[in-house]
Design goal:
It contains five helices and twelve strands. The protein is α+β, with helices and mostly antiparallel strands and 260 residues long. The N terminus and C terminus are likely disordered.
């Protein structure tokens, strides 16, 4: 199992920190300098494993009661390292009215705790729309790490064809872009959201929704995601990418068929 995970890590992703110069020499150096200044230094997280990880596995737990009754229950996620060991646990906090009538657009808070129960990351999602025909008031997440300290945002950008998002710092300045595929149904294959530099010249990581037919025995039939990042990526950016993964699950895979 470990050998398969190691193969998953080595998918040709270059090592990168926000603000580092692109390998493409044609890119202006000034853009990298401004990005370095824009991103705030990472804050220490209590009992944080994120600084050493280049593969973060997110496994959504299945609520049997919700499946039997056909009701929408609060989402729960296990966050694991590349060996399948749980390092964090995430629980959605939302009211029943929002889950029933707002469905995938619902406002909620996701609280991420370590194995000792200490909250290390808080993700706040307000109620917003996600229509490609509405360019304003699109999806946004606020990332706090540690809780109470805002370190970044994930914001949806309008595009008529592709799912596009940006990772922003605490001042809402764009740091990285996330570009998804035209179709996110995930039939018989992984769905990859590529994490790119602002000019989209370089891909530095990706967030993948795994097709259940290809995952190993670490997983069950629930939605499973992998965040592939350079190990030395800023820890607050990794926290923002975890938040982005939750957002994609709500937006694109909340009502997907089991096994896809």
């Amino acid at each position: 199992m470990a050998s398969k995970d190691v193969q998953n890590q080595r998918r040709g992703l270059p090592r990168f920190l926000p603000g580092a110069p692109d390998p493409d020499q044609s890119l202006p150096a000034s853009s990298s300098n401004s990005a370095t200044q824009a991103w705030q230094p990472s804050l220490p997280l209590p009992n944080s494993f994120l600084p050493t990880l280049d593969l973060i596995i997110i496994h959504q737990q299945v609520e049997l009661l919700g499946m039997i009754l056909g009701t929408e229950t609060s989402n729960k996620y296990e966050i694991k390292n590349n060996l399948g060991q749980r390092i964090y646990f995430a629980v959605e906090e939302s009211i029943c009215f929002n889950r029933t009538f707002c469905s995938t657009l619902r406002s909620c808070t996701l609280r991420i705790t370590d194995n000792s129960g200490q909250e290390v990351i808080t993700v706040n999602r307000p109620l917003r729309c996600n229509s490609c025909w509405c360019p304003c008031y699109l999806q946004e997440l606020e990332i706090q790490a540690p809780p109470g300290t805002i370190v970044g945002y994930v914001a949806q950008k309008w595009d008529p064809f592709l799912p596009k998002f940006t990772i922003q710092n605490a001042n809402k300045e764009d740091i990285l872009k996330i570009v998804g595929p035209c179709a996110t149904c995930g039939c018989f294959g992984d769905v990859d959201f590529e994490v790119k530099t602002i000019n989209e010249k370089l891909t530095i990581g990706k967030i993948s929704k795994y097709w259940s037919g290809f995952v190993n025995n670490v997983f069950t039939n629930a939605d499973n995601f992998g965040i592939h990042v350079p190990a030395d990526l800023d820890v607050t950016v990794k926290a923002a990418m975890i938040g982005a993964c939750f957002l994609f699950d709500f937006m694109f895979f909340e009502h997907s068929l089991a096994g896809l």
